[in-house]
């Protein structure tokens, strides 16, 4: 897995967050796409969750490391994208040039 994603996961664990725990990922049927994007808001990445309707939807998340926080990228909503491609296209537009 990507080194930046490993850094995010390490910080989450150190902060006591269950965000990436296997049990949490199973509960929400979550997947984390491996690409991490450097943006002006922090480190962004794409997740997907499968709801009770069995449809998979995608979210753009943002993480800051100091202090450690994680949440939906500003201007987006949980499961706000119907495809991985549309979520990646959004976050690609947020990238810091040259990153």
How would the blueprint of this fold be written?
Layout: H1 3-14, H2 22-27, E1 31-32, E2 37-39, E3 42-50, E4 56-65, E5 68-72, H3 84-94
Antiparallel strand pairs: 1-3, 2-3, 3-4, 4-5
Q: How would the global form be characterised? A: globular
Radius of gyration: 13 Å
Average predicted confidence as pLDDT = 92
Number of domains: 1
Strand content: 25-35%
What is the percent of helical residues? 25-40%
Describe the structure.
The structure is a single chain. It is built from 3 helices and 5 strands. With 99 residues, it is α+β, with helices and mostly antiparallel strands. It has one domain. Strands 1, 2, 3, 4 and 5 form a 5-stranded antiparallel beta sheet that branches.
Features:
alpha+beta; 5-stranded antiparallel beta sheet; 3 helices; single chain; 29% helix; 99 residues
Please provide a brief summary of the model.
Helix content is 29%, strand content 29%.
């Amino acid at each position: 897995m990507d080194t930046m994603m490993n850094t995010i996961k390490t910080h989450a664990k150190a902060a006591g967050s269950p965000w990436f725990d296997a049990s949490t990922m199973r509960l929400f049927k979550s997947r984390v796409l491996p690409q991490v994007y450097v943006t002006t808001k922090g480190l962004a990445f794409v997740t997907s969750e499968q709801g009770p309707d069995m449809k998979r939807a995608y979210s753009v998340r943002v993480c800051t490391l100091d202090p450690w926080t994680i949440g939906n990228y500003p201007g987006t909503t949980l499961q706000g994208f119907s495809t991985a491609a549309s979520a990646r296209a959004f976050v690609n537009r947020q990238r810091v040039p040259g990153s």
